[in-house]
Amino acid sequence: MGERLKAPVEPAVLAWGRKSAALSLAEAARKIGVDEARLEAWEAGTDAPTIPQLRKLATAYKRPLAVFFLPEPPNELGFSALRDFRRLRPDQRQPFSPQLAYEIRAAQERRAVALGVFQTLGTDPPVFDLTARVTDDPETVARRVRERLGITIARQTGWRDPAKGFRAWRETIEGAGVLVFVLGGAHHQVPLEEVRGFALADRPLPVIVVNGQDRPNGRTFTLLHELGHVLLGQTAIANDPEPDARLPAAARRIELFCNRLAAAALMPRDALLAEPLLAAKAGRPAQWSDEEIEALAKRYAVSREALLLRLVEVGRADQALYQSKRAEYERQYAADAEAANEGGFAPYKYQVLSHLGRGFACLILQGYYQDRLSLSAVAGYLGVQAKHVPALEQAAFARAS
To answer: What is the predicted pLDDT for the residue at 74?
Structure first.
């Protein structure tokens, strides 16, 4: 057999990857399983690794494969540090887990890849032009968000299914110029207890990452919460649905703003108060049956606790009802999650597409169609073997059901 195809990578990127992993040539060569002289030749540009060798290198350097196809080493000093809203309390100083740290780095590098591909294509990335201040009224900002995204109440209440609702919000936000990635599948697992989502607010192409271990309607709330961080220009990571009372006042103010914005965007006050169920309970906090809560949550494709919290905000439920129901729902979700874990994973092409998002995948494939990217580069950017590209292409360009 002839020699396998070489990966089209820049030697400087290979050298940067090794040095950023704090590995000597000898240490890196041993991890990858090649002679030190060969690795040195890769970094000098007199030879290049094959795709399988590049995969080993990415694993050894703890970097996503896509980053090695960049035209130059990424400027990591330009990556914004995340404010960790879970660890601003004195009793929470543990570092990120290695897997979460990897996913944060991967999201930063994938954004750099997308910007590079837009440059290669000779086009500008879409501009997400909404901004906000923490002193703004969340209800007003939420109306601007819905108007910018073009999501009407009629469209939203037609989804019914929470998974369909999440996909619709996600793809609409992607279309507005925000990259949205989902942690999940066989290779991108981070416990929900560690992170629900995070945002990289740099523009153009800010990034939102949502944990796929959450339920679809929970993911939707996190998506809108993190969009709030993008509007504020706050690169941040958060986890608790309700900000801890021990958080510093400034951080708690930001988290409350993002929660209220998410709730107002998902359940606009005027539309919610006009619902027959609420009109019948006008003028006072009311008791709600499980059937009523379920029906209204389904109508807006949101979680039951998000709905109840919104009912408290608009004066149609009290805090005691919310707290009692929230505890009940958390027990149910834990049982449902345990049962769901027994079902395994979706087909590989859907795992990849769910993780990367339709917007990112289609951008990379567009570069291939226009003969600006090789098949090897496309596979590298998407983090798959070349043989999987046709199936992923079919899934990416299929009309959403």
So the answer is: 74
Residues 173, 258 share a domain: yes
Residue 37 falls inside a structural domain: yes
The length of the chain is 401
The letter for the amino acid at 137 is D
Q: Is the residue at 152 inside a domain?
A: yes
Which range marks the domain in which residue 44 is found?
Answer: 1-63
- In this structure, the answer to whether residues 42 and 57 fall within a common structural domain is yes
102 with 239, same domain: the answer is yes
Blockwise average pLDDT, block size 10, the chain, 401 residues: 70 89 88 92 92 88 82 65 59 67 87 91 94 97 97 93 93 96 84 89 95 91 96 85 73 91 96 90 80 93 90 89 84 64 70 91 92 87 89 80 41
Together in a domain, 249 and 306 = no
Cα 152 to the chain's mean position, in Å?
23
Judge if 257 and 280 occupy the same domain: no
Q: Which two tokens stand for residue 391?
A: 């199936």
pTM of the model: 0.83
Long-range contacts of 375-382 (CB under 8 A, 24+ apart): 376/5, 376/7, 376/8, 376/51, 377/8, 377/69, 379/51, 380/7, 380/51, 380/54, 380/65, 380/66, 380/68, 380/69, 381/66, 381/69, 381/113, 381/117, 382/66, 382/352, 382/356
- Specify the pLDDT at position 241: 67
The tally of domains found in the chain comes to 3
Bond prior to 204 in cis (omega within 30° of 0): yes
Q: Cβ neighbours of residue 110 under 8 Å, at least 6 residues apart?
A: 64, 66, 179, 181, 207, 356, 360
Q: Nearest 5°: CA angle at 213, between 212 and 219?
A: 55
CA distances from 301 to 23, 160, 298 (A): 48, 6, 5
Is residue 226 within 8 Å of 198, Cβ to Cβ?
Answer: yes
- Per-residue model confidence (pLDDT) at position 21: 80
> Same structural domain for residues 119 and 247?
yes
- Whole-number pLDDT of residue 3: 52
CB 378 within 8 A of CB 367: yes
How far apart are the C-alpha atoms of 381 and 115, rounded to whole Å?
Answer: 12
Q: How many helices and strands, by DSSP H and E, does the chain display? A: 19, 5
Here the CATH number for the domain that contains residue 53 is: 1.10.260.40
In this structure, the answer to whether residues 233 and 85 fall within a common structural domain is yes
Q: Specify if 275 maps to a domain.
A: yes
